[in-house]
Amino acid sequence: MVTSLIPSVWRETRSPVAPEINVQQFPPQEIRNSTPSIYSIYESYGPFPNQSLMVGICADGFPFMLDLNNSRSGSVLVIGENTHERSQILKTMCLSASLINKPEQITIFVITNKPHQYADLSKYPNCQAIISPYERSSGELVIELASIVEQRRSGRERGGSLMLLIDDFQSINAILNDFSVYLNLKSMVNTGPQNGVWPIISIQPDDVHSSRGQLLRSFGTYIFEKVDNNQVFLPENGEMDPSDLVYTPNFNVIVGGRLTPISNLLA
Fold first, then answer.
1. CA distance linking residue 80 with residue 224, whole number of Å
2. CA-CA distances (angstroms) from residue 38 to 42, 48, 217?
3. Is 119 exposed, middle or buried (0-12, 13-18, 19+ CB in 10 A)?
4. Backbone angles phi, psi at 228, to 5 degrees
5. Largest CA distance in the chain
6. 192-241 confidence digits (pLDDT tens)
7. Where do the DSSP E strands lie in 104-210?
8. Rounded distance between C-alpha atoms, residue 49 and residue 62, angstroms
């Protein structure tokens, strides 16, 4: 079942002709024109360890990395009001994971209502599916990946890391109306990273307080946008020293209560 569904989803949704990636084709970002590209960071600081990926640039100029060999960071929640910025963070993670790792080390699945924005990633074999949340296969993919988590928990399944990126939590409301899909996603968020399956979801700040907000409280890593009025989302057990806000990065990261300011890469 696992080996039959995932390849079929890929065949049905992957663009037959993937455009060549060209850094120049991406629009310049207003605030961080001086931020180095993901390619220059890779050349300057690489090679990076297997099963790792870049999220952005820290205030000290070094890349902020996630180590998928270490499950302590848990599932990842990207929070911000700017839709483009949230998508850029997710694309940075996808692109860096593909540059650093072989497909057997990290495999990527994307559910997004903006599949055209991720089409350039389909040239990498790591990216196995780019699916609209309005397709039935998106709910099936969630259930399939959750079943892999259960197989790995019982020792029946081995393999590399699997990343499930959901760009815009609000867009998957329709598939979450299927209670089976909701329960499988919730289980994946809680136990996926310990078994090599990594849910990474972007949301609007208001969605944290939605009827399904309890699911979002189970994430271990929070990446949130610094907004003009200094209102930021913090998990209930989050810790922040107000003096940290003297930094004015575009994003902050909380991992286990630790705050790290970062800037997005030009992905």
1. 6
2. 6, 13, 30
3. middle
4. -60, -35
5. 52
6. 999 999 999 998 887 776 666 677 778 889 898 765 444 444 444 444 44
7. 106-112, 127-131, 161-167, 197-203
8. 15
Cα 220 to Cα 72, 77, 200, 205: the distances in Å are 7, 8, 11, 17
**Residue 37 DSSP symbol:** B
Q: Three-state SS for 73?
A: helix
Rounded Cα distance between 7 and 154, Å, is 23
Q: Is 193 exposed, middle or buried (0-12, 13-18, 19+ CB in 10 A)?
A: buried
E strands, the chain, are 52-58, 63-67, 76-79, 106-112, 127-131, 161-167, 197-203, 221-225, 251-255, 258-264
- Considering only the top CATH level, what class is 2-11+31-264? alpha beta
Length of the chain: 267
Could you give the CA distance from residue 229 to residue 212 in angstroms, rounded to a whole number? 26
What's the whole-model pTM score? 0.79
